[in-house]
Amino acid sequence: FKTTRQNAVKVISSQARLHTLSTIELRHAFHSWSGKRQEKLEAAEIKLHVERAFIDKNVSREALKHFLGYNSDFPENLFNELLSLLPLIKSTETFLSIGGDDRLTISCETKMNKYLSSTIPRANSPTVRRGSCTCSTITLEDYKLADAARKALLDGLLAKTVINNEVVYIEFDAANQEVIGRLKRVLDIQESQDHELVLFPSGSDAEFLPLVCALVRSQSLSKGTSPAAKVFNFVVAAGEVGSGTPNASWGRHFSNLAPRGDLQTVGGVLEGLDGTCVELIQLKPRDANGSVAFAEETLVERVREVLTRSSGSDGEAVGVAVVHVVCGSKTGLVYPSAAVTARLQSEWGPRVLLVADCCQLRCRLSAVRTAYADQGMLCLLTASKFFAAPPFCGAVVLPRELALELEGHLAAGGGAVPCGLARYITRFEVPHTMPQLRRFLQCGGGQKDFEEWLNVGLHLRWQVGLRGLEEYHKLPAPLVEQFTRCWVARLQRLVARYGSPWMQVLQEEPCDLGEGSEKMPGGVCSIVSFCVFVPAEADGQEWPRLRQLGFDDMKELHRLLAVPLVNRAVMLGQPVKLSDSNGLTVLRIALGADMVVEALGAFGNARKFAAAMDKMDSDDMIVIASITRFARNWGRPRQFASALPPSLEMKLARLDAELGPPLTGAFCEPLTPEVVSEVLRQHFSPWEETAGTTFDRILPALHTVPEVCVLYDLDALAASVASLKSAFAVLGADCLHCFAIKSCPLAFVLHSMVRAGFGLEAASLNEVKQALRCGCAPHKVVFDSPCKSRADIDFALRAGVHINANTVAEVDKIRAALALLPEPSSSTVGLRVNPLVGPGDIAALSTATSTSKFGVPFLSDSASSSSVQAILGVFEEHAFLTSIMCHVGSQGMSLEAMAEGARRVLWLADLVDHRCGPEKRIRTVDIGGGLAVNYKDNRITPSFAEYAQTLQRVCGEDSLKSAVSGRQLITEFGKALVAKSGAVATRVEDVLEQEQRRTAICHAGADLLLRTAYCPTQFPLRVALLDRQTLSSKPSDPAGKDRDGQVCFVGPLCFSGDVITADWDRSGQWAGVVPAAGDVCVVLDSGANTLSLFSRHCSRASPAVFAFRRVRRVHARGGEDLAYVLCCIREEETADEVLAFWG
Question: Contacts for 424-427 with beta carbons within 8 Å, 24 or more apart?
Fold first, then answer.
């Protein structure tokens, strides 16, 4: 017979997986169970009807017989036993989604509830769980635990000789009493302390019990003068507690579905309650701007006001005020202070009933008893927030005095307890030490034809929650405290480093009243709330704008993150609107007890603990990366340049999205130490900040300033680009400005120049390939190498780039290559000439001398000179030559020398046209680049505008306009565009004390700053020093002021010439400043010829390169701030890559 019983149970269980059925299947099931055909019911409604049919046992013998496939007579005893067992015969996932309100209902389409969590484990779509402040999707491990608990209940009953309703109730009651006992032990509530504990389906409906206690107290204080009661319920953190809290505190239904399965109306009064006897007063913890503004005095005054006018005179009821004490709101606020609650209790005694809302249960577990229950407060808690049990399961810790008062009231036949409470809890959720309340619930508060019900779903959810509570409770408290502080600090640094400027942590002190922080582990809030910024419409302002997402957009972002697409799903705390006036809204990343248990459970094993911490950091990074990915692309389709290689295309598109629009416009001064300091402080941590804690001794400090890195200010670069364009616009020429790749070959910098309309000048075949790789149109690539092989020329001609031949022999090679091409080349070809204007201050950088290797020399004193006639002959002989080019030098060349070289090549171009006419032969004149950089201070001198003015003066304004008319003018500036936009930041590793000298040994030197090391007087770079602890400009040291000794900054290479500056200029701001190990040395004006001249000496790895730009964040609270978007545009070289260079 037992086998038959078990088989029948299996058949019913297999058909009870309701949320896995389609709508049609559900309609069919409904028809099978109820005998009624209903084609119009929606899936959710059918599910509800089917579940209610099970709960209410509205199953006929014939329907059950048909359901089980019986052809013979159906045994009477089996039918009765199965009817008794029906409340326990459902799938685990179905149980987990019933026995609560409509927040538990699972959508047939998405398999998720309204909070985007699920009772079904996401086995095939991994989820990063950081939403424990709202609710959590069940894990496979927890699902197995719930399933085992369900099977244990059913197997225990199936082993009984006889099964009837009473046997089922006794078994289920015993299981729930065990849950109550275990929960009390976790909370350190001993039997001798006599606090009672009642289970509730959630924290919201747990609000009914404080209301009931207040109604009982009011009626008791009224001493029969009035049959009614009067309660004033103060919800002190309105908007930051459960969404159902206001209605439940008011004695109203907060959902259209009761845990028992009854349909009801939201806002409808709880059955048996006089709605007029409860008044709800909501106090918000924030001002209209969304800032924390605890109005404790307002609370005291309002309590005094309502209790004074309900003193029991004129036959009215004596009013009782229920005052909530929130221990961890949705954003972690603790409010009001213990001083205020003590003051209210002292002034009003039993007329004030205090309720501690610990539903997040992020407080110290011991605080539930010591800080609240022992002080006479009811305490509401849940295991479905911090402890990540399936949503939802709540409980109320009831001080013994209040439990006795409630029991006495019911024993005396008092009528203050509304019968509607029986829709939410049963006697099985109440301890045996409260027999009157159990009896009241058993009969439904006296309701006619009331039938008892079992909340198996709540029991299973608590089984899961208790395991997490018990494991957490076993952990050493000091370790938990330290871990909590560490995680919060690390997450905030991660958000600052990788989330900025798209994410901004809500910087508030959650526990800034009284001893509130003493209740929280580590004295911190384990919910990190943050705002999200997205690109705003362009408004012509100086910097691009970011707007802050409001509530509706945040809800959509929350949904997008929770839906697993390509990557992992990310579960965050639901958005919280902090202000109605400005729409300030935050999302939340929450620490969960499961994270603490997983990490600290491996604490004794350094390797496993480090792995657990690494996984936690990795998951936090997935969260931040997912949010920033959605934020930076909010409202923007991703665009790619199809000409780029796929991998580089994706990288550059990502950087474009993160770093914003092309290099255009706004004025910005060159990169300064102050800007470098702001960028480093916003995105990195000082290198010793996290040293000393247990966790940071095991793991390295997160995201400290690298030992060495290169920084590029894209706004300074944009200003430099704009200044060049505007300076040459006055010449009236058709200009193609080409950026000299050799000065900074970084792909993103070249790509940015191309986006700004520039061409690229290449000094080698690989630079040609890099230009094409970065999306430059072939006709805008100028190939200028003085040493081109036949293979180089063939590639360039096939690619269609512009070629400048360096010698007459090279012209012949180009002619031969053109003749062998299978089809005509689109390349244009020019001849480089040397106008012989003489050397500048630096001979090595002067290219217009009689001994220079660059170009065909000519004397411009006469058109009849042999050198000029020879050049004219070359153009006459080779009709494919349509361009002429010169470049007289770079650093150290005067503006007059550069302008004179341009004048001479323009004069020569006119001679070529005259000789090869009648049509204009020279269509392009390339005057090179070479503008010097001022390394002495932050001034840009000489400037592009000064050069353009010098060109007009030397050439003659009218002559210049005539010479460029009908021709394209090409420039090839490099260093002058990028030098002052870049800086090298390197850590001081050690300081060597020497007689009359301090030598700061850094991680960068001649490997990056090669010209400065070998030619210090010609390339003297400025050095700034940032303090290792603050990353701000280092203040002067009184001890250092009295010393006349030198300060020298040197690099890491093994030769004595590796010197950044031999005698640091410590005048002005740096007077008396002394370097120390850990400080950050900032080498300014180093944006050009750093990585492109990188030395392999000593096999040092080339550093990471970062680019940044400014954005204006417009805050919902009003006002703006300037933030920096920082991206790594080139990763640090690995050891394997360095070694691979050597074969």
Answer: 424/200, 424/201, 424/205, 424/208, 424/258, 424/259, 424/260, 425/198, 425/199, 425/200, 425/201, 425/205, 425/259, 425/455, 426/452, 426/453, 426/454, 426/455, 427/173, 427/452
